[in-house]
Amino acid sequence: MFDMFFPDRYVASTYVIDFEKLYNEGIRGLIFDIDNTLVPHGAPADQRAEALFVRLKKIGFECCLISNNQEPRVKMFNEKIQVNYVYNAHKPSVKNYFKAMGIMGTDQSNTLFIGDQLFTDVWGAKRSGIRNILVKPIHPKEEIQIVLKRYLERIVLHFYKRSLAKKG
């Protein structure tokens, strides 16, 4: 019932992902959400985010930020990162996932999405036919509509974890 929202993987943080392994598996494009995926909500890129994108570019990845925020927020975050971005993305609409892949020159077979929300990030990626990783939110301070969605996410994640346990 909830499996349409199940992430392909669920990890503690963007910063624990083995990106070298993903590159060796054939992933060439990475699409990232920003808020609570890379930095706390509304924060500029910090040293950890800057170092991550330096590393990703060195590995050989194409990267694109995709955010439901307006351009000033996304542009401010991207000042030090310097990757492509799509703002006002209307996730989970698939349109801008495909736009991001077009910008990067990748397709569904070699693109991965990383985000912190099931009902926008993961569901949009799944509807777009691309692999995805759900990360735990960086910071608990969020807008009220996101806080409400987090209650529903807990229910879905309960069933996700049960399905993993059954698979053994």
General description of the model:
It is a single chain. The chain has a single domain (3-167), classed as HAD superfamily/HAD-like (Rossmann fold, 3-Layer(aba) Sandwich), CATH 3.40.50. The protein is built from six helices and six strands. The protein has helices at residues 19-24, 47-59, 71-78, 95-104, 118-128, 144-167; strands at residues 9-11, 29-32, 62-66, 84-86, 111-115, 131-135. The longest helix has 24 residues, at 144-167. It is globular, with a radius of gyration of 15 Å.
List the helices and strands and how they pair.
Elements lengths: L8 E3 L7 H6 L4 E4 L14 H13 L2 E5 L4 H8 L5 E3 L8 H10 L6 E5 L2 H11 L2 E5 L8 H24 L1
Parallel strand pairs: 1-6, 2-3, 2-5, 3-4, 5-6
Which features characterize this protein?
single chain; 168 residues; alpha/beta; Rossmann fold; 6 helices; 43% helix; globular
**Unreliable segments of 5+ consecutive residues:** none
Strand order of the largest sheet: 1-6-5-2-3-4
For the termini, the CA-CA separation is: 20 Å
Cα-atom radius of gyration: 15 Å
| Mean of all residue-level pLDDT scores | 92
Count of separate DSSP helical elements: 6
Strand content: 5-15%
The assigned structural class equals: alpha/beta
| CATH architecture descriptor | 3-Layer(aba) Sandwich
Shape: globular
Compose a concise summary of this entry.
The chain is of the alpha/beta class and 168 residues long. The chain contains 6 helices and 6 strands, in the order βαβαβαβαβαβα.
